[in-house]
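Supplementary Note 3. Input sequence used for the single-chain structure prediction.
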Amino acid sequence: MNASEQRGPGLGLLTVLTGAVGAGPLLLYGLSATSDRIISDLGITEAHFGLLATVCFGCAAIGSATLARLADNRSDLLLMSSIFLLAAASFVLAALPAGFGLLLVAAGLAGVAQSFPNGVTNRILLERVPGSRRIGWVGIKQSGVQVSQLVSSLAFPALALVMGWRGAALAITVIPIFLLVMTWRSLRSTPLLAVAASPTTDSAEAAAGTGAQDPESSRPSHPSKPPRHPGMVWAMAAFGLLNGISVQATNVYMPLFAVRELHFSLVLGGATAALAGIIGVIARVSWARLMARGASGLRLLLVLALIALAGGVLFFIADVSGRAWPLWVAVALHGISALGVSVVLMSALMRSIPSASMASASGMVTAGMFTGFALGPLGMGLLIGSAGGFRAGWIAVAVVYLLCAVLAAILIQRVRGQSRSA
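The predicted structure, written as discrete structure tokens, is reproduced below.
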């Protein structure tokens, strides 16, 4: 065991990795938690409010597809610093007393801040964290999104009651700035492992194409040549797209649904998203531990899709009955399942993709997720504004989760067939 592995990376690095994944989503979660007040203050419709998420995740999807490949050849410190600076800038713009247009720009910056954290944090794990701890750390750092959801969903409404939602945005700017300072310290004190990390490929999933590339121990010598990713990477991107549609349709409009349809207060409406965030943190760590023990990523995706489908049905039941208890159960199922998908997808990549192309492969899957994130709120907003209202929206959410389950089942059958032939 080499000296760097003996000492091992510290809590500071884990905090920074978790913060990098969660910094970009902070703004949108905060805006969603105070959506009723923002819609009223700006005089916009629910569909217009959905445009904030569409612009945010649209920019994230474009960034994932373009910047992630460039990220394969940029330093960890540069990329991590850029994440926190972009997140801070988005809060500053949101705090300015301007109209809806500038808020859209702020949402776009927040989206760019989300476009490459998965790739660079996965690479840092491969190159700086011993293999025995790596998958466990994936679960913790991927829970950064739900930590962000928890913090924003609780802090934003509470601060908005005191200083308005723009003041709340300015106050929360301190979080990415603090994480930026931590980044400089933690990365400089955590050296690269002496032996470059090679992924451990799941044999069954490798048969389907996830292990097609040869592990590499250094950055590509020809960075301009695009890496060819195995077919399963594209399949995981497709699953992330479908899941992302329903995830963000739910995340963005869940507090508004609670306030408008079930007559929750602004703070209690934000608490629905906060509860989903708490459960999501626990779920992501738990699913990562199962992956670390050798669980099949595809089977877990099928389980998650079925649980999310049950949650979507309960959201519909809450709407029809006007009762609160189905909503809280649906929120819990949402946190357990749909919010845990990304950690399973990222863990599957860690098993099969070498560090030299991890940023671009992660970017491809992340682009799929963000495309879904962009489409979901826009579609949900249009459905809410139609005659069907929230009921039509929850039906659509459930149908998309059903498609996720079907895709996972097809992929499982494909893996079985190729394993037999191999």
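The chain has a mean pLDDT of 83. The domain at 9-212+221-421 is CATH 1.20.1250.20 (Growth Hormone; Chain: A;).
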